[in-house]
Amino acid sequence: MHPLEYRDIPDPVPAEGHALVSLRAAALNHRDVFITKGLYAKIKFPAILGSDGAGEWRGQPVVIYPAYDWGDDPGFQGKNFRVLGMPDDGTFAEQISVPAAYIFPKPQHLNWEQAAALPMAGLTAWRAVFTRCQLKKGEKVLVSGVGGGVALMAMQFALAAGAEVYVSSGSPEKIQKALDMGATAGANYREADWDKRLKQAAGGFDVIIDSAAGDGFALFPAMCNPGARIGVYGGSLGKVNGLSMQPVFWKQISILGSTVGSPAEFAEMLYFVEKQGIVPTVDSVFELSQGNAAFEKMDRGEQFGKIVLRVI
Fold first, then answer.
1. How far is CA 292 from CA 1, 9, 25, 133, 309, in A?
2. Beta bridge partner(s), residue 106
3. 20-62 pLDDT tens trace
4. Which architecture does CATH list for 123-257?
5. Architecture category of domain 18-118+280-310 in CATH
6. What is the DSSP letter of 278?
7. pLDDT for 200-250, tens place per residue?
8. With pLDDT > 70 as the criterion, what percentage of the chain qualifies?
9. Spatial distance between the Cα atoms of 228 and 217, rounded to a whole number of angstroms
10. Residue 261 phi/psi, 5° resolution?
């Protein structure tokens, strides 16, 4: 992992139509760590990383839409779409210049660290759960890999929408924490037949939200109810081997790819968070100058929730 540098640079000068935000907190995403390892497309150095940020603009508390140029089609991002924090300067700084259309009022019930934890995880979860999978009240949902920021937001959104939520993780401690937050049951995917036991407990799933793919993904169709939707917002474990298509077509299962989301979805997500009083889970807070320690913690995968940098 390439070490980060903490140093002074000139203050950003806002272009026409941009707003200069004084950041109060920023949050890490796995994308940031992948960039320091060279595991991301079109890496460009030097770069100020960071996609998640909350701060002040003209004395008002705001959160920042974590991307650029979604495009005109709500169904998918355009060719110029990119996530904030390389090549465009990101939120691991005291100030950032972003298009004024990309700043939104901070949910009033959140502190700075909680607000900074929301944008990327909240938007990604929102699109996967509601836009793509069209979750309905009373449905049974499986969120895999609970403990990550997006997975936790997906769980919280589904619970707030009146769904019955189940989780999987390789950590018994993370499963227990999810149960404490309202999940009905969980299973350790490192144990044999975890999928069968969880399906029996739930009676089958209407929605599955996954970020990992890999061979474990092949278990999902058998766990689904007829008409189920599987939302996929990542592929950290690579290709799926052993996936049988018979249950996919016979049960009329939809496999739906999803990534980040549009500014309109960001506004919808923020409204829902404020209306429901949802609070993102913050695992730990580091000072901005402690960025390398924060990255090392994320790389170890020990966190439950978001790792946040306090800027001011």
1. 10, 18, 16, 36, 11
2. none
3. 999 999 999 999 999 998 878 788 888 999 999 999 999 999 9
4. 3-Layer(aba) Sandwich (3.40)
5. Alpha-Beta Complex (3.90)
6. -
7. 999 999 999 999 999 999 999 999 999 999 999 999 899 999 999 999 999
8. 100
9. 14
10. 165, 170
pLDDT at residue 1 tops 80? no
* CB 26, CB 311: distance < 8 Å: yes
**pTM exceeds 0.85 for this model:** yes
| Token reading at 106 | 């901070």
Sign of CA dihedral 107, 109, 112, 114: negative
Domain residue limits, the chain: 18-118+280-310, 123-257
Query: 285 near 308, Cβ under 8 Å?
Result: yes
- Strand-pair partners of 27: 52, 308
Q: Where are the alpha helices (DSSP H) in the chain?
A: 30-36, 112-116, 119-126, 149-160, 172-180, 194-202, 220-223, 246-250, 263-276, 291-300
CA 191 to chain centre: 26
Mean pLDDT computed over 281-296 = 96
Q: Structure tokens of 115?
A: 């607000």
- CA gap 282, 149 in Å, rounded: 9
